[in-house]
């Protein structure tokens, strides 16, 4: 009995968090410390927001994300269009070293590869890509590899 009450309370907290981020269409199932999200959203950014909201609402628990991203009929883009839009978005963001990032697109899933010097460049790259219309998922293979620092300076005599 106590377990069901705790499950119900955890589910209600998750639903409140989902409402705060505007994630309608997401179903919540709670069994013990395991939370499962399912349903359909219209952007990858909304999927990530729902996942984050569930973690906040449920606390440190196991989370299964079975949310599907389905773009509205008029927003459907071909992989070539998604690739072009992601490329432009990366080029326009001054904090992303876009020439060092390679991407591939398959059925709206973006695969990113490359090296960046700082973790904030990696985070910014993911932030930019997740908000491009047509992106359904991101597979991240970007590595943070700090540039080697210059050698010691020579003193002038």
The number of helices is 4
Low-confidence blocks of residues: 150-157
Please indicate the count of domains. 2
Tell me the Rg in angstroms. 20 Å
The side-by-side strand order for the widest beta sheet comes to 1-2-3
Number of beta strands: 6
Average per-residue pLDDT, rounded, comes to 85
The succession of helices and strands, N to C, reads HEEHEHEEHE
Q: Could you characterize the architecture of this molecule?
A:
This protein is an alpha/beta fold. The chain is 38% helix and 28% strand. A 3-stranded mixed sheet has the order 1-2-3. It has a 3-stranded mixed sheet with strand order 4-5-6. It is elongated. Residues 150-157 have low confidence and may be disordered.
């Amino acid at each position: 009995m106590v377990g069901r009450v705790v499950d119900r309370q955890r589910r209600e907290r998750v639903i409140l968090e989902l409402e705060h981020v505007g994630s309608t269409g997401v179903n919540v199932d709670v069994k013990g410390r395991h939370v499962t999200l399912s349903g359909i959203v219209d952007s990858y950014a909304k999927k990530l927001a729902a996942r984050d909201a569930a973690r906040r609402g449920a606390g440190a628990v196991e989370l299964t994300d079975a949310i599907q991203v389905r773009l509205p009929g008029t927003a459907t883009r071909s992989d070539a269009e998604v690739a072009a839009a992601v490329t432009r978005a990366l080029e326009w963001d001054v904090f992303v070293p876009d020439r060092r990032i390679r991407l591939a697109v398959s059925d709206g899933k973006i695969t990113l590869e490359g090296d960046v010097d700082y973790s904030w460049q990696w985070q910014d790259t993911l932030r930019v890509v997740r908000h491009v219309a047509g992106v359904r998922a991101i597979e991240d293979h970007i590595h943070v590899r700090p540039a080697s620092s210059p050698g010691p300076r020579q003193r002038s005599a």
